[in-house]
Amino acid sequence: MMNKVTALVLLLIVFKGNAQAIDTTSTAKQHDKIALKQFVVPAVLVTSGALLLNTQANQNIQSDIRKEFGIDFHTSVDNYIQLAPVAQIYAGKYLGFKPKNDFVHQTINIAVANAIMGTVVTVMKHSFKEERPDSSNNLSYPSGHTATAFTNASLLFYEYKDSNLWYASSGFLFATATGVLRIANNKHFASDVLTGAGIGTAVGLLVSYWHPFQSFNLGKSKKTTALVYPQIGNQIGLGLVVQMK
Predict the structure, then answer these.
(1) Is the pLDDT assigned to residue 190 strictly greater than 80?
(2) Closest by alpha carbon to 200, among 143, 159, 158?
(3) Within the chain, where are the H helices?
(4) For 61, which of 71, 173, 188, 190 could close a Cys bridge (C-beta 3.0–4.6 Å)?
């Protein structure tokens, strides 16, 4: 019974944290200004992950979740659903929802946010050098998959929250599932996932308000195609193609 309760607590931390982040963002965005209080939830997630690092509680959560899924459980689904919010950002317009930005600026936000997140995560991985649960390498902390998922889920939320709150929030379901599956796959500890979720949420929020290159205009006379696409193979990531005619 305690094993199930422990696993459930982890899920509630992530869901509750992002529910609070959504409420805060919705209120603040009425004036399109960012406030420090909007970073409280990301800070709590990162701090929780840091406090769990190298503790018995971290090991217990790992054991509890793996028992629920099965010790021999393995799936590659987390490699794909981490990028689901990116597809949702582009697809929302065609589903009848009004986005905040046009196609080009959506692409710019995605590229900039993921570049910042990737840099932060990479620096932290090589600084902390924490061993993965499966002992495959020492790049466990924080979780890059989870950070990627929450970065893009946050961008998705900002993009469509005023058009359809349910659609805007749905990316956090994929993001949370990604984090849980990283633990179930024995690739990350709860500490890695919580910290990755906090980093991703913070970066997505920051870029959404920052609007990098918002004044960038390719001109009506030019036909431009921009696309962010997933790269899945020996390395998982995002690629960017911009075509100007």
Answers:
(1) yes
(2) 143
(3) 2-28, 40-52, 56-69, 77-81, 84-91, 103-128, 144-160, 165-169, 171-184, 190-210
(4) 190
Average pLDDT, the chain: 84
**80: its two tokens:** 């794909």
Q: Is 214 exposed, middle or buried (0-12, 13-18, 19+ CB in 10 A)?
A: exposed
Residue 93 exposure: Cα atoms within 13 Å on the Cβ side: 11
- The two tokens of residue 98 are 């009004």
- Mean pLDDT along residues 146-158: 97
Residue 99 CB partners (closer than 8 Å, separation 6+): 89, 92, 93, 106, 159, 160, 163
pLDDT of the residue at 231: 52
Strand partners, 224: 244
Residue 42 has pLDDT above 70, yes or no: yes
224 membership: H or E segment, kind and range? strand 224-231
Task: Categorize the per-residue pLDDT at 86 as very low, low, confident or very high, splitting at 50, 70 and 90.
Answer: very high
Q: For the chain, which residues make up each domain, given as ranges?
A: 2-244
Q: What b-and-e string marks burial along 55-75, b requiring 16 or more CB atoms within 10 Å of the CB?
A: eeebeebbebbbebbeeeeee
Q: Which residues lie closer than 8 Å to 8 by C-beta, 6 or more apart?
A: none
Three-state helix/strand/coil letters over 20-53: HHHHHHHHHCCCCCCCHHHHHHHHHHHHHHHHHC
Instruction: Read off φ and ψ for residue 72, nearest 5 degrees.
Output: -95, 10
